[in-house]
Amino acid sequence: MPALPLPDTTLVASPGRVQGLGRFRNDEVRAALGGALPAALRDSLRDEFEWYACRGAFFHNDAHYGGVLFGAWCVAGPRREIVFARAGARTAAGSGDWAVFDPFEPHAVLDRGADGYQREQFEGALASLFISFELRLDDRVRRAFGIGPARQGAAVLSSSVAINAETGALA
Questions:
Q1: Contact by Cβ (8 Å): 80, 109
Q2: What's the CA angle centered on 95, arms 90 and 98, to 5 degrees?
Q3: In this model, does residue 67 exceed pLDDT 90?
Q4: Which pLDDT tens digit goes with each residue over 75-120?
Q5: Read out DSSP for 37-89?
Q6: What is the pLDDT of the chain when averaged over all its residues?
Q7: Are 94 and 112 in contact (CB under 8 A)?
Q8: Which CATH superfamily groups domain 16-144?
Q9: HSE value, Cβ hemisphere, 13 Å, CA-based, for 82
Q10: From its phi and psi, is residue 77 left (phi > 0), alpha (psi between -120 and 50) or beta?
């Protein structure tokens, strides 16, 4: 992780909510993320990043991020997981871990091994701190991640789709 001044995560008041702590540009962060991506995808990395923090996060989607794959690089906080209930998938979310995913897919930040969000587990818990990044959803990114056209009859997720905050199921 490049030497950056970290935002104050003690201001993250409400468990379950992901809180934006400011956008920024940084050549060192871009170089670190770009170096971890396959060379063919580096040009798809957007220049602007954002700090996010949470004390656990209930199931939600980030449908306001259209036309991109969303990335979350955990830079501080306890070992947790990003959980994708519909896909039955989870990925580590501890310091140094990062993930790239479809922002429309419901996901949560949970304690390791947890299958659902329970607010009381995160009362007074330490916050996780993430740098978010975006990959433009161009042809190279689509090929690299195996993204094809939507299947006929597939559910289209948007910000208006109700998601059960505890389980990630579509309501």
A1: yes
A2: 50
A3: no
A4: 999 999 999 998 999 999 999 999 999 998 999 999 999 989 999 9
A5: S-GGGGGGB-SEEEEEEESSEEEE--TTSTTEEEEEEEEESS-EEEEETTTTE
A6: 89
A7: no
A8: Jelly Rolls (2.60.120.10)
A9: 27
A10: left
How far lies 76's CA from each of 5, 44, 80, 122, 157, in Å? 12, 25, 11, 16, 30
Residue with tokens 């995560």: 9
Q: How far apart are CA 131 and CA 51, in angstroms?
A: 5
Amino acid at 80: R
> Kind and range of the H or E element at 98?
strand 98-101
Residue 106 CB burial class (10 angstroms; 0-12, 13-18, ≥19): buried
What DSSP state is assigned to residue 135? E
- Do 163 and 106 form a contact (C-beta atoms < 8 A)? yes
- The pair of structure tokens assigned to 171 is 């309501």
Give the C-alpha distances (Å, rounded to integers) separating 2 from 34, 43, 47, 58, 133: 13, 20, 16, 29, 15
Structure tokens at 143: 């090929």
Written as six digits, the tokens of 163 are 């998601």
Length reported for the chain? 171
110, 83 Cβ separation under 8 angstroms: yes
